[in-house]
Specification:
With 490 residues, this protein is an alpha/beta fold. The protein is 38% helix and 21% strand. The protein has a seven-stranded mixed sheet, with helices on both faces. The protein has a six-stranded mixed sheet with strand order 10-9-8-11-12-20, with helices on both faces. The radius of gyration is 24 Å and the shape is globular. Bound molecules: nicotinamide-adenine-dinucleotide (NAD). Nicotinamide-adenine-dinucleotide binds next to helix 8 and helix 9. The site of nicotinamide-adenine-dinucleotide (NAD) has 30 residues, from helix 8 and helix 9. GO terms for molecular function: aldehyde dehydrogenase (NAD+) activity. Belongs to the aldehyde dehydrogenase family. This is Putative aldehyde dehydrogenase. Keywords: Oxidoreductase.
Length: 490
């Protein structure tokens, strides 16, 4: 008997006309049925969000009252983190020790935006006309369409739902068709927190119908998307009719630069964290290791040793360090790109296959390949898996050229004890994040987003909330005198 999940539309839980099965990636066996939202379901959800936007139950709340609802939601997320983590682990294969800690931290994102709600301020302008007062109001941008990919759905939706609600918007959130269970379960917490009907709607379905219907809906004013660049292009095309504002958090091929003076112990753990945590299924994965010649052999020997010692296994076990990939398709893709890379001249240093004894689960070994050029497929393409591509440099200039030789620009890591070198690199690397002597650190207080094909706009931090507002300029004339010349612009 499979577990079944429902949509949350207009404050009610409902079934969809069609369903699909969700597979546990650790076993390859279906464990739940999910509702597949149709274009009609999407239309119902967007219309509910549009009604809620202007209804007194939501529009009539003060900013502080919106903040209180968000605080309540944060508390509920924290209280239910264990259950949500288990669902995410079952539905995506992400290991339980990461889902537990990440979802505990998701509560902090809601707390952060709860606190921001009553700090979104307008302005009074010193306008250059003596008989005018001008002020600016920050108003909610409207109905938001939030779309997330399968990795870290609760986390990636918190950076959309939090600022959207703080700003007074309403939202229709589309969970990925892969691993939607935790987000559909989160809907119960939204309901319990007491948000008025229609303010938050959560559904799932496939990109071609549900995703397309949502991003081309005429009542949607803003699209907050996280996913791959090709989908982003389709979404921009879908939104053209309505000219909806878009923020796009896309893929990456992030470089980790290691200089000769770095500490091998500390760097090796950070490199492992960057590429093998979440089995490499992380947008900020440090998938290109650029290493200076003098430290190369020592660092690679340590990395190979550590990669071979990683405990691969049941993602629900707290000792497991690497679980399966989320989908069979994902593993097939990684295998194909790796084979092409070896053909193109890359050398396998460790891994490269499916670990023994894992049955039908979608497991793949932690893999390191030494690559002669940037044209090797594993260097050029995002794999979204546990494959580290290594390249060697001699000079700082070569390191920068290799690091920036990518169409992406999400994150980067620099490992050196030379402060002046580190500062120079923070200026020269074309990426939205530079981590120095650390990797994969995030916080609700810090903006997150990419350059180039890694995206448009920033999530996290104070400014992100402004992307969910628009400015209204209010002009008030303080004089009763007739306007001097009605035919000339003042
Ligand atoms: P994807 O682009 O295939 O799908 C993402 C979402 O878009 C899913 O919900 C999907 O149903 C939906 N979608 C697909 N086609 C659509 C369409 N035509 N219209 C509207 N919606 C549509 O991505 P994925 O394979 O699920 O996720 C992996 C990608 O996400 C990687 O590239 C990864 O780097 C990226 N990612 C980026 C970040 C970030 O913050 N920068 C974070 C996590 C993942």
């Amino acid at each position: 008997m499979l577990k079944s999940f429902q949509h949350y539309i207009d404050g009610e839980f409902s079934d969809a006309a069609t369903t699909f099965e969700s597979v546990d990636p650790a076993t390859g066996v279906a464990w739940a049925t999910m509702p597949a939202a149709s274009a009609d379901d999407v239309d119902r959800a967007v219309k509910a969000a549009d009604r809620a936007l202007f209804a007194p139950e939501w529009a009539g709340l003060t900013a502080s009252q919106r903040g209180k609802l968000l605080y309540r939601l944060a508390d509920l997320v924290a209280a239910n983190a264990q259950e949500l983590a288990q669902l995410e682990t079952t539905d995506t294969g992400k290991i339980i020790r990461e889902t537990r800690s990440q979802i505990g931290y998701v509560a902090e994102y809601y707390r952060y935006y709860a606190g921001v709600a009553d700090k979104i301020q307008g302005a009074c302008l010193p306008v250059d006309k003596p008989d005018m007062d001008v002020f600016l109001r920050r108003e909610p941008v409207g109905v938001v369409a939030g779309i997330v990919p399968w990795n870290s759905q609760l986390f990636l939706s918190a950076v959309k739902v939090g600022p959207a609600l703080a700003a007074g918007c309403t939202i229709v959130l589309k969970a990925s068709e892969e691993g939607p269970a935790p987000l559909l379960a989160f809907a119960r917490l939204v309901h319990e927190a007491g948000f008025p009907a229609g303010v938050v709607n959560i559904l799932t379905g496939f990109g071609a119908d549900c995703g397309r219907a949502l991003t081309s809906h005429p009542l949607v004013s803003k699209i907050a998307f996280t996913g791959g660049p090709e989908t982003a292009r389709q979404i921009v095309r879908n939104s053209a009719g309505n000219l909806a504002a878009t923020s796009l958090e896309l893929g990456g091929k992030s470089p980790v630069l290691v200089f000769d003076d770095a500490n091998v112990d500390s760097v090796s753990n950070a490199v492992i964290a960057g590429i093998f945590a979440a089995s490499g299924q992380s947008c900020v994965a440090g998938s290109r290791l650029l290493v200076q010649r003098g430290i190369r052999d020592r660092l690679l020997a340590r990395l190979v040793e550590k990669a071979q010692a990683i405990r691969i296994g049941d993602p629900q076990e707290v000792d497991t360090e690497m679980g399966p990939l989320a989908t069979r398709k994902q593993r097939d893709h990684i295998e194909a790109v790796l084979a092409a890379s070896l053909q193109a001249g890359a050398t396998l240093l460790t891994g490269g296959g499916r670990p023994a004894g894992r049955g039908e689960g979608f497991f793949f070994e932690p893999t390191i390949v030494d690559c002669p050029t940037s044209t090797v497929p594993s260097v050029a393409q995002e794999l979204f898996g546990p494959v580290l591509s290594v390249m060697t440099f001699d000079t700082e200039a070569q390191a920068i050229a290799l690091a920036n030789d990518t169409k992406y620009g999400l994150a980067s890591g620099v490992f050196t004890r030379d402060l002046t070198l580190a500062h120079r690199l923070t200026r020269r690397l074309r990426a939205g994040i530079v981590w120095v002597n650390t990797y994969r650190a995030v916080s609700p207080i810090v903006p997150f987003g990419g350059y180039g094909l890694s995206g448009l706009g920033r999530e996290g931090g104070l400014d992100a909330v402004l992307e969910y507002t628009r400015t209204k300029s209010v002009w008030i004339r303080t004089s009763d005198e007739p306007i001097a010349d009605p035919f000339v612009m003042r």
